[in-house]
């Protein structure tokens, strides 16, 4: 693979092509569920879960990670895992949720939202929106400061997080205090240079990306698919402060940059972190120097956002 000589040497061990289709999704999710359960929660983090109703009244589970032995109200981060709207959360997503809870001193709500191909758009969005409403409505009994509720996600999860932030006025909800978008999926049109160039990059590529959108927006009229695409959203009058992180060898690279510019041009405060030598999902290698360095930047953004109010 030609990119192995261009990406950061620390990432070569995870730099492999990953196929994406309905059969792979079904098999992979069996492994994902097992590995997630076997992933230990650090002793400094407490873990429990709740079940709430989301898309069409269907139940879904939400894991909660929070600093141990803390009783006072804390900020809250809704962390929406990536996975092409198709895959269950990975072990490293759970580890990241624990890191965010410990380092940013917040309660992390981690939804197991409904997935494609069985549940296309707007199922995942409806689930996360229902969770946001639930937290807002029950913040006092949940021990959450309702002035400090942020949303975050990576890849497809970042797409959902961005839509929550774009639609909060339309949904008649209180503004999220921040949005943290890691190598975000933002544009269903797929016309950027990186999308055209990176058709065979490790872990994710434009061929997989096109199939993902087809699964996600199945049965929708073309004009209705734009509702799933943050780049085509109408922005609220006040846009939550944003952190946008992009990966260099990623078909989503350019749309992440362009989305950040769109928010900035609309008056938002946007912190861009255009990482070098990286691939989509590079932080799967959690213990590498490059992942550790960029996760610290995410934590710094969260701390600033939570302490601003």
Can you walk through the features of this model?
The chain has helices at residues 22-38, 91-103, 123-137, 139-142, 156-167, 193-197, 206-216, 222-225, 253-265, 289-307, and strands spanning 45-53, 59-67, 74-80, 107-111, 144-154, 178-182, 241-246, 270-274. With 309 residues, it is of the alpha/beta class. It has an 8-stranded mixed sheet with strand order 1-2-4-3-5-6-7-8, sandwiched between helices. Helix 3 crosses helix 5. The radius of gyration is 18 Å and the shape is globular.
The backbone outline, from C-alpha atoms, is globular
Number of extended strands: 8
Using only C-alpha atoms, the radius of gyration works out to 18 Å
User: What proportion strand?
Assistant: 15-25%
Largest pleated sheet:
8 strands, mixed
Structural class: alpha/beta
